[in-house]
Amino acid sequence: MIRLVVADDHPIVREGLIALIGSVPGLSVVADVDSGVAAVAAAREHRPDVVLMDLQMADSGIDATREITATIPETRVLVLTMFEDDRSVLAAMLAGARGYLIKGATQREIRQAIEAVASGGVLLSASVANRIVARLSAPPALPDGSTTPPADGRAAAEAFPALTPREREVLDLIADGANNATIAATLHLSVKTVANHVSNILTKLQAVDRSEAIVRARRAGLGKQ
Asked: What pLDDT digit, counting tens, does each position of 201-218 carry?
């Protein structure tokens, strides 16, 4: 029996998912919640095999996904959301989600995704998988959308306008190759705070990992050249 927690802040959607899952042999809903914080609490209490997670709730489904995957690694997160933009997909996968489905998926697709994720696999909806393949196949994009490094070494504030001043400081140190502990000591922050900044930076830059962030930062003139 695969045990699930369903997290969605729309009662009708949540009830529909519970009914759908309950009609499939081998699947069981042990709790349903309407927020990310409640999803984390339910995961800690019930230790389910899978949390079916919406992203857009009163609080962040991304943050809940990150906390669940970091503190309860035996519980997998399967995202079921309306959003299939690159930012949402990358943020969810970077947070540790093992699957990503778009609402409107059929019962069969949801069942297959649950079973795949529960067994340790990864399953993405076709549209999401195509986006990831396209992104991985394309040359790394720079902040202005080009694939050619800028010649003027422009400032980080101009290159990455979505970042806060503190996040730009952290990115500058990341570009130097500093790890989180070194960044924390340099900026007089806790390692946990630095880790949060790094996660936000990766999300805002839509960087797949730290290495991609370093490459893009150095191309923008950050770090010791």
From this structure: 988 887 877 888 888 888
> Where on the phi/psi map is residue 112: left (φ > 0), alpha (ψ -120 to 50), or beta?
alpha
For the residues 147-156, what does the mean pLDDT come to?
45
pLDDT digits (tens, 9 = 90+) for 177-196: 889 999 999 999 999 999 89
Q: Which residues contact 118 (CB under 8 A, 6 or more apart)?
A: 2, 49, 50, 76
The Cα–Cα gap between 2 and 73 comes to 16
Closest by CA to 65, choosing from 46, 49, 78, is 78
CB 47 within 8 A of CB 163: no
Residues facing 3 on adjacent strands:
28
Report the pLDDT value the prediction gives residue 210, as an integer from 0 to 100. Answer: 83
Domains of the chain: 2-135 (3.40.50.2300), 156-219 (1.10.10.10)
pTM listed for this prediction: 0.62
Question: What's the one-letter identity of residue 154?
Answer: R
148-154 long-range contacts (CB < 8 A, ≥24 apart) are: 149/219, 150/219, 150/220, 150/221, 152/221, 153/220, 153/221, 153/225, 154/220, 154/221
